[in-house]
Amino acid sequence: MSHTIREKQKLLNRVRRIKGQVEAIERALVEEQGCIDVLQQITSCRGAMNGLLAVVLEDHIRTHLVDAETHEESAGSATDQLIEVVHSYFK
Description:
Distance between the termini: 24 Å
Largest sheet: none
CATH superfamily: Metal-sensitive repressor, helix protomer
Mean pLDDT: 83
Helix content: over 70%
Oligomer: single chain
Number of strands: 0
Radius of gyration: 17 Å
CATH architecture: Up-down Bundle
Number of domains: 1
Number of helices: 3
């Protein structure tokens, strides 16, 4: 994953926010907060994880799966379509 070095700080910030969300879920369970509150926190955390996964996967697709220089016009279209499908899956 050497290509993630470019975005290393942004990725680490996302992971740290997710870590805080997981810790908030743990606190909510320890404090026996209501089901709705816990479910909302879990949903938020899941969304954050999906967002992180989408960013890393998109970079992987752009970096490793598509040779944009060789097939610039057609690959760009295919790349965008693939990324759109991936993003729609994680919504």
